[in-house]
Amino acid sequence: MESTGKYWVPVFNILEERGVRVTIANPKWVKAVKGNKDDTKDSKWIGDLFRLGLVPGRFIPSKDIRILREFTRYRYKLTSMKSSEKNRFQNAFTVCNVALLSGVF
């Protein structure tokens, strides 16, 4: 399977659950000959390279590690969004010349 972006992930997950051994290849390592290209020719080319052992597979961690990574990235994103929204809120008050009291009267 040629991997570009994240489009390969759902297909990989389904095949992995069914016990199919999948090799993920970087597209620049299996680049086809220039000319008229289509999916059939690309598939045949990648298959030929794979049969000759010329397709180095990428490291794909176990499913548990992949899930943990996704949750960690999502948590980081939410934390970053919270900080940026807080800064945007403070900036809006500064621009409008509104001062919030610090709680000391």
Number of strands: 0
Low-confidence stretches: none
| Major beta sheet summary | none
Whole-angstrom Rg = 24 Å
Summing up helix and strand content along with how strands pair, one would put the structural category as mainly alpha
Helix amount: 40-55%
Q: Oligomeric form of this entry? A: single chain
Shape: elongated
What string, H for helix and E for strand, traces the elements in order?
HHH
Distance between the termini: 66 Å
Give the rounded overall mean pLDDT.
Answer: 84
Domain tally: 2
| H/I helix tally | 3
Q: Tell me the fraction of residues in β-strands, as a range.
A: under 5%
Describe it.
- With 105 residues, the chain is an all-alpha fold.
- The chain folds into two domains: 8-51, no CATH class; 61-98.
- The protein is built from three helices and no strands.
- It has helices spanning 8-17, 39-51, 63-95.
Outline the secondary-structure elements.
Blueprint lengths: L7 H10 L21 H13 L11 H33 L10
